[in-house]
Amino acid sequence: MLRALASTTTSVLGKRLFELRQAKGLSLRALANAAGVSATLLSQIEREVTQPSLATLRALSSVFNEPMDALFQDPAVPTIRVSRPGERTLLVRPKDTISYERLTCGDGPMEVLRTVLNPGQFSLSTKATHETVECIYVVRGVLTVELAGITHEVRAGEAFNFDAIHSHRYGNNGNEDAEVVISITPPIP
Q1: Distance (Å, rounded) from C-alpha 85 to C-alpha 63?
Q2: CA separation for the pair 22, 34 (Å, rounded)
Q3: Whole-structure pTM value
Q4: pLDDT tens across 55-71, in order?
């Protein structure tokens, strides 16, 4: 019975490790270097020949920026992560004048952020560009979006999406706070 459970766990782990490695575009050697283990060991884990130590599992979960239990989740079963108030990461990027509450969990292809801009507050002092697509939903207030030299006003209940390779910034020119939810894909590093 215990041997069957270990075999099932190793099988799920091998498949999941392969899936995560492929999703990150890593070779066995690159993942091995990042985790501080041998490529041979990783190959054996993926092929279900051996079981990793706890230290190896910790190193792999760190490289993938995933909780250790995520390594044992069957890739065929969708992963659901719940983001709870009080447990979310607060992001302050170097050039930003505001902080963002990260609503998404893990390291996925999309990042969802929430922020509140006070009257007169802007995301950046100057316009920025990056290779992402952004969608901004205004929960309350009015958001002023400056995109490629054109100013747009987006009101509560409205959404605005754009290719962020164009110079842009957004802010609050109103008299009340503006709360927004921002989806960015791929996430800004």
Answers
A1: 26
A2: 15
A3: 0.61
A4: 999 999 999 888 888 88
Topology (CATH level 3) of domain 90-185 = Jelly Rolls (2.60.120)
For the chain, give every domain's residue range.
2-72, 90-185
**H helix runs in 25-171, sequence order:** 28-35, 39-46, 54-64
Asked if 35 contacts 56 with a C-beta cutoff of 8 angstroms, the reply is: yes
The class level of CATH for 2-72 reads mainly alpha
pLDDT beyond 60 at 92: yes
Retrieve residue 152's tokens: 């747009």
Phi, psi of 188 (to 5 degrees): -75, 125
Model confidence pLDDT, tens digit, residues 128-171: 888 899 999 999 999 999 999 999 999 999 999 999 999 999 99
Nearest 5°: phi and psi at 67? -65, 155
